Structure formats: structure tokens, C-alpha cells
Amino acid sequence: QVQLVESGGGLVQPGGSLRLSCAASGGFFRIDTMGWYRQAPGKSRELVGTISSSGSANFADSVKGRFTISRDNTKNTVALQMNNLEPEDTAVYYCTVRTSTYSPPSLTRQYWGQGTQVTVSS
Hints:
Elements: E1 2-7, E2 10-12, E3 18-26, E4 30-39, E5 46-52, E6 57-59, E7 67-72, E8 77-82, E9 91-100, E10 108-112, E11 116-120
Parallel strand pairs: 2-11
Antiparallel strand pairs: 1-3, 3-8, 4-5, 4-9, 5-6, 7-8, 9-10, 9-11
């Protein structure tokens, strides 16, 4: 089992910045991808951004140019830097990781954090 703990959520004004962090712990052989999804009230959970083990990042069009993502493979952490926040960014943000097992057959599993609230309002 893998546990993910998010931190850094809160209330910010439009145009402000916020940094989310996520730490992974537990049993896994390798973390392949780390990232963030978000879910606003009445909407489906959607991709925010992901980063591969090699550092390749992928973002939703709605946040490109405003958000950046980074990871520390030695600490099993991932961070999301959110700049120029908009009210539409208000949501619960969930950290997620995809892991691979060591023993054949190699299995891929996905885990989710409990979520952290981000509210953008004046």
C-alpha cells in the first residue's frame, strides 16, 4: 500500500500564487509518474499536470503557462507551483502516483491522496 499526503492548500486572491506538495510513502518498487488532478463541485475530476520519472511534464491546457510541476526522486515528493490563480482554479486538488511492481508480471497501480482544498476568491 502507498500513502500520499498533500499540503499547501488554502485561500488565495485571484492573481495570487500557491504551492502544493505531496509526499509518497509505503510499499512500492518504483514510482513511474507523479501528478495532480482536481475536482470542483459538480464537476468531474480532471488532469492538472503530471511528471514522469525522467522529468517530462504534461499539463492541462487550462493551466499551461501558469503552473509548473517538479519532483524529488530521492524524497518521493512532487510539488505543484500555481501562479496567476483564477477563481476557476478553485477545487479539491488530489495528488496521484503510478507505481510498478518488481516481480513479474510487472503491475502498474495508481494511488490517490486525500485531497487538499484550494479556494481562489476575493
